[in-house]
Amino acid sequence: MKKLEVSFKNSDSRELKGVLELPTNSQPSNFILFAHCFTCNKNFHAPSNISKNLASKGYGVLRFDFTGLGDSEGEFEDTNFSSNVGDLLAAAEFLKKEYKAPVMIVGHSLGGAAALFASQKLDSVKCMVTINAPSNLSHVQKHFESSSEEILNKGFADVKIGGRSFKIKKQFIDDLKKNQDASALKEIRKALLVMHSPQDEIVSINHAEELYKSAWHPKSFISIDGADHMLSTKADSEYVGTVISAWASKYIKEPKAPELKTDHEVMANLGATGFTTQIIAGNHHLVADEPIKVGGSDLGPNPYELVSSGLAACTSMTIQMYARRKKWKIDNVETHVSYSKKHASDCEECENDMAKIDSFEREISIEGNLDEKQLKRLMEIADKCPVHKTLSAKAQIATRLIDS
Asked: Residue limits of the Serine aminopeptidase S33 domain (predicted)?
């Protein structure tokens, strides 16, 4: 993927800093706006991992720091919930002006509530996603309960949130009260996905229930089972990104893949950093990657796993195709393939690593009412699958440089 550092002005002329995650293969057709959690920033694990995952699916994703947080200008103490909503509207206007208006808005925690409010004013947004979000803003005031008297008397108080100290002014609490009910979804007729962890100890699962009950159809709820509020485990945030992409495909037109020259051509596109590679094969988008232990992000199979997958799929298809032609009933064909480099059995230079050859181990399980003669024939047919023939022969690879 490509990652661009961007900046734009909010309504108070404060410069907000953001990161735009883009797929490497082309300019995305659809853009997503991400709102991070209360007192967080754009570089926290959840917004970063979710954005990268969505970009790998072909979306452009903008995540940014709200005023007074991260790299953005301004003082946090002078902000409030309304200003967060305003920042989201400024971010949407930036996307509209420089790229394309966002079709989806995703919000984590209080960012989810802000996303719902902002979506009312964004006609381009077709889908909304909340992640561990509160259904009402009175929940946020719990952070300040112990300091409420000090805020009332002095007009402000220093409050510890997530181990960090923030100055909270009375205007912040007054603004929360003014925008009290974040579950007021009756005026929003857009597809909504509510994602929430039953184990969330900061915003309970009851909030998800209230959001879901208040929303119009189409609406969906998906549990992020086992996750904490911050989605601090990488697997949880990547799961969220994958689910959002699959759910949104129902409501958003998929980005059109670049046209390939021949029916059998595929395209692999890798950006300047990492190993995550986007693959286009016909009408299908795939992702290849390397394991984390060798510097990859493990967002997809590695190249040799893809080759092994091709052999396994072709084997199962060929066997089933032959059986159908013979009118033999097969319930299932399961092919396992593993790749390694091994010494040839008759190798005279087995101590020399250069003498190793590519080796594919293949195990086939065939379920059906078949006799031994039929099974033997099907195993012979397995060796005739086209990918098997290609791999066992010495293929020719012609390579040339083309213009970008």
From this structure: 48-161
